[in-house]
Amino acid sequence: MSTNTLIELHLVVITQDDALTEALRQQFAATRQAAFQITRVPNVSVARAFLATHQVDALLLDLDLENTHKLDGLITLRSQAVNAPIVVFAPTQDADLALAAVRAGAQDFLTRTQLMLSDSALRVLYAVERYALSSQSHLHAEQLQFSEARFRLMINENADGIVVVNQAGVIRFANPAAENLFGVPRQELVGTLFMAPLQQPNSPLVELTRGQEKIFAQQRMVETVWNRENVWIVTLRDITAERLAQEQLAATQVAQEHHRRVAQALADSAAALNSTLSYEQVLDRILENIERVAPHDAASIFLIDGAKARYVRGVGFDKRGLAQWLGETRFDIAFLDHLREMRETQRAVVIPETHKDSRWRQLGMEWIRSYVGAPLRVRDEVIGFLNVDSETPNFFSASHAVDLQAFADQAATALENARLHAQVARRAERLAEMYDLARELAMQRDSEMMWTLLVERAIQILDTSSGGLLLYAPETNEIVVREIQGAPSVPIGARIELGVGTVGRAALLREPALVNDYAAWEFRQDAFVKAQVTAALSVPMLYGAELVGVLSVHQVSDATKRFTQDDAKLLMMLAAQAAALLRNTRLRQEAEKRAQQLALVYDAGLTLNRVLEPRVQLDFLSRIAMRSVRANMAVFYRFDPEAQALELDLALGYQERGATFKYRDHVPLSATPSIEAWVARERMPALIQDVAQDARFARSPETLGSGIWVPVEHDDILLGVLAIASAQTYFFTPDDERLLVLFASQAAVAMENARLYQSVLRENERRNVLHRASQEVVSAGLDAERVYAAIHQAVSQLMPCEAIALAVVDEDSAQIRLPYMYDRGGRQPVTALAKSQGLSGRIIDTGAALNIGHLAQSNVPSVNFGYPVQVVSVLGVPLRYGSEIIGALLAESYEENAYDDADRVRLEMLAAYAAAALMNARGYENLRRALRQPAATD
Asked: Angle at the Cα of 250 (from 246 to 253), degrees rounded to 5?
């Protein structure tokens, strides 16, 4: 409002009081803020008529009009929609009336007193201004309501989805198009969160969900105020169909480019894979070309071995330290679901996110986040798997699986071609090796060398780790180990029953036994399982229909090695050749052995006839027997008929005879168990192929495997037992037994001849000794002591004589004098005893010789003199001089059964000389005694 120009206001006063009106004119004229033109009308009806024709700026209404109730006039004027402010006044202050007037539309309430005040004009002026502002505000509100109504109509009719979203992301309004866009009624949509990003209001494209459907929309956002709240008006245009069309077009273009690239890659890969027939090179080229089909962080090739898969090639594992572990591990296909699925369905498998797929097992390789694999198929058979790994989750898709399968089919074909080529080349190489081996075997004359060479070459030709050769033993219907190279370590000579293990099955069925999972095989041998044999192939060695043996090869600690039917055919060819050669060699060796044995028997007979020393004969004969049957031990037990026991006479092949045979130096004939005693009792030879299994054999500290025991007899008289032995079981044959019986017969004859010869020699020697002793006794002179000493010396030369007693009869005293006794205590004092007392008394009384083998057990009364320990053996003979018995001569020993009948004869002959010498000495002593007595006088 300008300070130079007054506001002109037309004020209508509705009252019946002229004085009041005049007072107001004067008062309002004095105001400086406005120029008032005042018109008075007496009542509301006149006022209404006046207002219909005049423009007024304000109304001043008296509430105390006649015929008008309080606020009726105000209400009437307001209902007419008077376009001017109304100020009411009353005679007095009435707060309730004032409040009611303002509520009815009055701009202000004054009393008559307040109206007469100087500021009343200003209060009217203020009312005019307030009314003007209020009217303008109402106008703006009406315009805004119209604009909003028009806006709402435009939004509701819009084909694009429009939502109003507040700062918290809550939808405040949604048009029908939005309802269709989201697939949710507007009532449900309002109040929910808006899912599109509000932080990027200019994002041209957003992705929404409509139930299970994914839709795309162009988004435009405008920030504004809606119902006094800061909001975004979001416009969403559905471009899903357009988007899908674009994506489909792009996908088609990408697929075409991908197919072109993959086709080129497959063509190049096929050329590379088919450019070589080396199996190893094919594996390398598969891994070199797979990158063009399926980009990856690691790739591998697994081949199938039965129920397991083995890693043969890979890239990307060395840097992670996994290559060696993969190469040493065999994976159970049933355990790895993705491999099992590929094997069963023969289709590729893709696992976009390995950490979320139940088919995937980490196996310590958590870095693999995405996987695709394809089976390697050859003639509807899965031979392996091609595996591709990525560190990126969801890296591989179904298209990778399709491309990889096409590449895997090419790779499988290349691998099969390389395998077949290698198989043909290997077969040719093996046939050449077979030819060379046949020539080598034909040149061998030693069967053991042939066995060694045969097993060695079988292992080499079949490229395996170990093998063995077993020969068939028809006498026990078993197969015997003759050659083993590599594990398991089976002792040579071990015997295996038919039907046990691959060797037993091959021998029993007369056909190859092929096992590629030995630990799970029902006929497995525990020793082979402990030795970690994984595969085994055994074939029978047949000569016509005759089983010669079994040739076997094994693979240890390598589950990747698998024998094939081609391997079995090849080994059968080798076994057939070997069977013929072995049989011919065996026949030749048996003939040579028989000739050699007969020559040895002949030479032994000639030698034994020239050697008459028993000990030398036994040693020579035992060595010849050992040599003839290739034994490494021999013993001879001499039979003692008096003791009824076998005494060890000879042991060959043992380092410590005493320690080895101490417990068997003396074997009673009744001993059990004892094979020596059994042979002596039964007078029958015994061939024991495995002494550990024979109850007749007494356990011994030496290592014996087999042996032959035969009795040595002459004219049905047992002389002893001859035995040969070997550390190997089943080492000897019945032919060896027959040969040893022949040697035993020769030994018996030789021993008897030697015994007779030695007996003659001993008898001659004893006669010479007796002659010398007799001469010494006779030449002892007439001195009794010298005669006693000469008799003692002579007896000691003839027989064992640890003690001696010389007894003579004293006729004068009727006693027996013992002038000479000698034992371990030395010379004993001269003593006497009654004529019939003691051993000497019995000999003198009976006149018969006395031979006692064990004095304490004989019940013969005796008298012990001298040494406190009584003698054991006694040989006594009477001293005869003519027909008279003058005493007795007793030879005594502390050993049991020290004297035999030959000793008795020799002692009786010596006693005759001794009696003559004693009589001469007695006569000389009597003469001397008579000469010392004084002469008798009358």
From this structure: 140
CA distances from 799 to 322, 447, 890 (A): 91, 58, 12
Q: Which of 146, 149, 186, 190 is nearest to 169 (CA)?
A: 190
- Measure CA of the first residue to CA of the last residue in the chain; give whole Å: 228
Q: Which residue shows structure tokens 């400086």?
A: 32
Provide the 8-state DSSP code for 170.
B
With beta carbons less than 8 A apart as the criterion, state whether 873 and 865 touch.
no
String of DSSP letters for 54-110: ---SEEEEETT-TT--TTHHHHHHHHTT-SS-EEEEESS--HHHHHHHHHHT-SEEE
> Could you read off the pLDDT of 519-532 as tens digits, one per residue?
889 888 888 888 88
Place of tokens 């039979």: 639
The string of pLDDT tens digits covering residues 788-811 is 888 888 888 888 898 999 988 887
67 dihedral zone (left: phi>0; alpha: psi -120 to 50; beta): left
Model confidence at 2, pLDDT cuts 50, 70, 90, reads very low
State the residue for tokens 């005694």. Answer: 929
pLDDT digits (tens, 9 = 90+) for 612-637: 566 666 776 777 777 777 788 888 88
Beta partners for 39? 12
pTM: 0.35
Dist CA 192 CA 863 (whole Å): 140
How many other β-carbons are positioned within 10 Å of the β-carbon of residue 452? 16
Q: Are 97 and 109 in contact (CB under 8 A)?
A: yes
> What is the SS3 assignment for 600?
helix
Provide the pLDDT confidence category of residue 537 given band limits of 50, 70 and 90: very high
Cα 789 to Cα 799: distance, rounded to the nearest angstrom: 16
Record the tokens describing residue 642, joined without a space: 């008096």
